[in-house]
Amino acid sequence: MMLSPKMKRKIIGKTNTTLKFFFLAIVLFLLYFPILIIVIQSFNANELGTDFGGFTLRWFRELFKDEALVQAITNTITIAVLATVISTVLGTLAAIGINSLYKKKRRRMLLINNVPVLNAEVVTGVSLFFIFKFVGILIGNEFILGYWTMLIAHIFFCIPYVVLSVLPKLNEVDKNLYDAALDLGCTPRTALTKVLIPSISTGVLTGMFLAFTMSFDDFVISYLVAGAEVENFSMWFYANQKRSGRTRAWPKAYAYNTIVSVLAILILVIYNIIAARKQRNLRKDSLKRR
């Protein structure tokens, strides 16, 4: 039986749709199945996690009772927030400066900016370690490594990601926008803060979120520049894993990661709801004007 061209196109279309759905399902499974396992294990009464021993909130209580873990989480959050704010400001200003350069100089600056991104984390960490140690020798402080060196290191490796996020938005903005604002009576600061930066706000937000993510879960560089007295969460987990030898650090780590995952999902949902409402309001306003 010969199929008509219309039937063939219909069958091919259904097959493509099925394959696309199957591929999407595999990708979503690989992305979210580990998170689902972590969430389940955080409520598992069995400490080893080999089977489900019943529902419990014990690990969440123990998480907040562990002073060392609470301090590590505090260090993780404060360093991530400070590094994000500082690197976003510096990276945005650096991107604006790079964008204003001539083509050859811009390429050179982009090459310099991309080196920390492409460089291996261990190389960056070792380099910063020796720099901090050298500075410590110069100022007579052998124990310079600590909270502030970790913060400086995080700012250092976050700035290039902010620059790379902001530059594409700057390329979309009219090159004469800043000059036009100055011609209309704005001061340089007002033209920058009220005209140029709002025009590239999506790129700035993207760079900010990327910088926070990079800082929040960093281990290699943090481990090399933090010294012996300061830990973030990943360093705490590594140290406890080595000391306990097995899985004592796992349940509290599961609980912590569950809290982080839930908060991240809530933030994304709220952000999408706000963005959808803004788009809806803009459409309503445009319809009213018509």
In short:
The protein has a single domain (58-261), classed as MetI-like (MetI-like fold, Orthogonal Bundle).
Q: Overview of this structure, please?
A:
The chain is mostly helical and 290 residues long. The protein has one domain: MetI-like fold (Orthogonal Bundle), CATH 1.10.3720.10. It contains twelve helices and no strands. α1 crosses α12 and α6 packs antiparallel against α9. The termini are far apart.
Primary descriptors:
MetI-like fold; mainly alpha; 12 helices; 0% strand
Topology diagram in text:
Layout: H1 5-42, H2 58-65, H3 67-99, H4 103-118, H5 121-139, H6 147-172, H7 177-183, H8 188-199, H9 201-216, H10 220-225, H11 233-244, H12 250-289
Helix pairs in contact: 1-12, 2-12, 3-6, 3-9, 3-11, 4-6, 6-9, 7-8
